[in-house]
């Protein structure tokens, strides 16, 4: 997969992250990088005063640095800014950071040497992934703390994930025959002054959310069969007159999943209307798809954006300190995705309640094989309710918060990395809720008769039963939830 700085898509990123595609660099764009680098070298040689090249950083931007110390300036920057704390980002997120940073620098506006981009790509292809603590970014001036831990690895410092181990970067580089890089003027700042931590986390979260959203509809279709749901609510005409494309497509998929089922009913056959958690699946899930489409658009813009500072234009004739490092577009997108995915869990939990509550259906109470002696799925619903409640606290928007930093020079920040991290956690919680719905739905359709299911749902049921066996006796259901959750993530 070739990167150009301008054309990276989520499909490309997926191939690098999960299919381990080899990354190459567009040579024509390296020429733009070389031009930008010559401009930086000229600025240093002529002692022009340019932020981040021969000045301090943040509140120290007015402090001029002697030409003899510009390399030390970059080293000090990375060391002092490597203040990340907490558990590391998942390894796949670290891999995404390398890819996104390389792609951004390849645009040619950052003033780095080609070797910096080449080394980032070499790390990807050698599967050397920096250990990057999750906490410590304010999401403006970029992801300074997280990306500093990434930059350490290029210098042979810090830690990496490599061949299933967490080891010193210097050791991994040596095993791959790579020498540490000494950062030159502007390069440390170019590596850390960007939004690649929040965007990488956002990309991984989005890819998981998209997959989960599709699975949520198939699970919901099985629930409809388990409850003898009314198929009329998914009639195409109903959704066309509302006009939302995502709602129309969701209803279309629901009709396809349930085509040929003898477990669905028509209006008035058993009841006139279903509850909203069944009847309004296209409206609710469709609205979440609207958000995911929005998030996808913003991520694909940001993945191909120049987000450091200053930016170098016209072969160095114009060097501007701007604010492209500010993560507000991604912060808002991540907060929006948090709400959208949390809603998939909210409506799923209500469907779980309808599957287990004997006051709401004609199935055995709590789907128990021996009601009373055995509790069946009673506490499965408790766990789902707990996860949904936790999601509601995580869904509080991070982007509405801002704490000034760097002596009030950086007086408004995005908290976008927090938003992305919380979005990812909501996705993990939601997958568990949907796993619980799947377990309950499979049990319900067994009582109805699996021979009466549609071809698509029956195939899904049969695959699911390979993971979670039928409930014929109370057992430790947390193990079933874990297995179903892992299957939904990886299948």
What name does CATH use for the topology of the largest domain? Fumarase C, Chain A, domain 2
Spatial separation of the terminal alpha carbons? 24 Å
The CATH architecture of the largest domain can be given as: Up-down Bundle
The CATH class designation of the largest domain is Mainly Alpha
Number of domains: 2
Task: Report low-confidence residues grouped into runs of 5 or more.
Answer: none
Keywords: Cytoplasm, Histidine metabolism, Lyase
Catalytic activity: L-histidine = trans-urocanate + NH4(+)
Pfam families: Lyase_aromatic (PF00221)
Main location: cytoplasm
Report on this model:
This protein is mainly alpha-helical and 491 residues long. It folds into 2 domains: 2-194, Fumarase C, Chain B, domain 1, CATH 1.10.275; 202-490, Fumarase C, Chain A, domain 2, CATH 1.20.200. The chain has 18 helices and 9 strands. A 3-stranded antiparallel β-sheet has the order 4-6-7. A hairpin with a 2-residue loop joins strand 6 and strand 7 (165-168). Helix 9 (196-226) packs across helix 17, helix 11 (245-258) crosses helix 13 and helix 16 (416-448) crosses helix 18. It is elongated and about 85 Å long.
Helix-strand blueprint:
Blueprint: E1 2-3, H1 10-18, E2 24-25, H2 27-45, H3 70-81, E3 85-88, H4 91-105, H5 114-125, E4 129-130, E5 133-135, H6 144-154, E6 159-162, E7 165-168, H7 169-175, H8 187-192, H9 196-226, H10 236-240, H11 245-258, H12 276-279, H13 281-302, E8 311-313, E9 318-320, H14 328-356, H15 378-394, H16 416-448, H17 455-465, H18 477-490
Parallel strand pairs: 1-2
Antiparallel strand pairs: 3-5, 4-6, 6-7, 8-9
Helix pairs in contact: 1-4, 3-6, 4-5, 4-9, 9-11, 9-13, 9-14, 9-16, 9-17, 11-13, 13-14, 14-15, 14-16, 15-16, 16-18
């Amino acid at each position: 997969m070739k990167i150009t700085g301008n054309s990276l898509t989520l499909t490309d990123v997926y191939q690098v992250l999960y299919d381990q595609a080899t990354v190459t660099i567009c040579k024509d764009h390296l020429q733009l990088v070389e031009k930008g680098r010559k401009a930086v070298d000229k600025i240093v040689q002529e002692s022009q005063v340019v932020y981040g090249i021969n000045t301090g950083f943040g509140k120290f931007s007015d402090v001029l640095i002697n030409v003899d110390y510009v390399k030390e300036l970059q080293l000090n920057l990375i060391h002092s800014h490597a203040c990340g704390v907490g558990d590391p980002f998942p390894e796949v997120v670290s891999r995404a950071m390398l890819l996104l940073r390389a792609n951004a620098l390849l645009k040619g506006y950052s003033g780095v040497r080609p070797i910096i981009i080449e080394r980032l790509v070499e790390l990807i292809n050698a599967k050397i992934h920096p250990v990057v603590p999750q906490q410590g970014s304010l999401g403006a001036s970029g992801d300074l703390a997280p990306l500093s831990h990434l930059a350490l690895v290029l210098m042979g410092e810090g830690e990496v994930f490599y061949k299933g181990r967490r080891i010193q970067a210097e050791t991994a580089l040596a095993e791959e025959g790579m020498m540490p890089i000494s950062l030159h003027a502007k390069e440390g700042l170019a590596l850390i002054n960007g939004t690649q931590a929040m965007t990488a986390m956002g990309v991984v979260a989005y890819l998981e959310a998209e997959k989960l959203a599709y699975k949520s509809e198939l699970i919901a279709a099985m629930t409809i069969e388990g409850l003898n749901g009314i198929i009329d609510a998914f009639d195409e005409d109903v959704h066309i007159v509302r006009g939302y494309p995502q709602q129309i497509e969701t209803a279309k998929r629901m009709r396809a999943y349930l085509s040929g089922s003898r477990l669905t009913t028509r209006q008035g056959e058993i009841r006139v209307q279903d509850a909203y958690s069944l009847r309004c699946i296209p409206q609710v899930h469709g609205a979440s798809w609207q958000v995911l489409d929005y998030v996808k658009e913003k991520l694909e813009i940001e993945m191909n954006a120049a987000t450091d500072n200053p930016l170098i234009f016209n072969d160095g004739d114009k060097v501007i300190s701007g604010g492209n490092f500010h993560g507000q577009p991604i912060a808002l997108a991540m907060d929006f995705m948090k709400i959208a995915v949390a809603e998939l869990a909210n409506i799923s939990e209500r469907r779980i309640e309808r599957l287990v509550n004997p006051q709401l259906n004609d199935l055995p109470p709590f789907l128990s094989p021996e009601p009373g002696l055995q509790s069946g799925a009673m506490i499965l619903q408790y766990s789902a309710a707990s996860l949904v409640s936790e999601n509601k606290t995580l869904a509080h928007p991070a982007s509405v918060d801002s704490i000034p930093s760097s002596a009030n020079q950086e007086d408004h920040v995005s908290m976008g990395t927090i938003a992305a991290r919380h979005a990812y956690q909501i996705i993990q919680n939601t997958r568990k809720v949907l796993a619980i719905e799947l377990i309950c739905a499979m049990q319900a359709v067994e009582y109805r008769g699996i021979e009466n299911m549609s071809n698509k749902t029956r195939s899904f049921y049969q695959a699911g039963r390979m993971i979670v066996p039928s409930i014929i006796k109370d057992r430790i259901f947390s193990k079933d939830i874990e297995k179903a959750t892992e299957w939904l993530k990886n299948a």
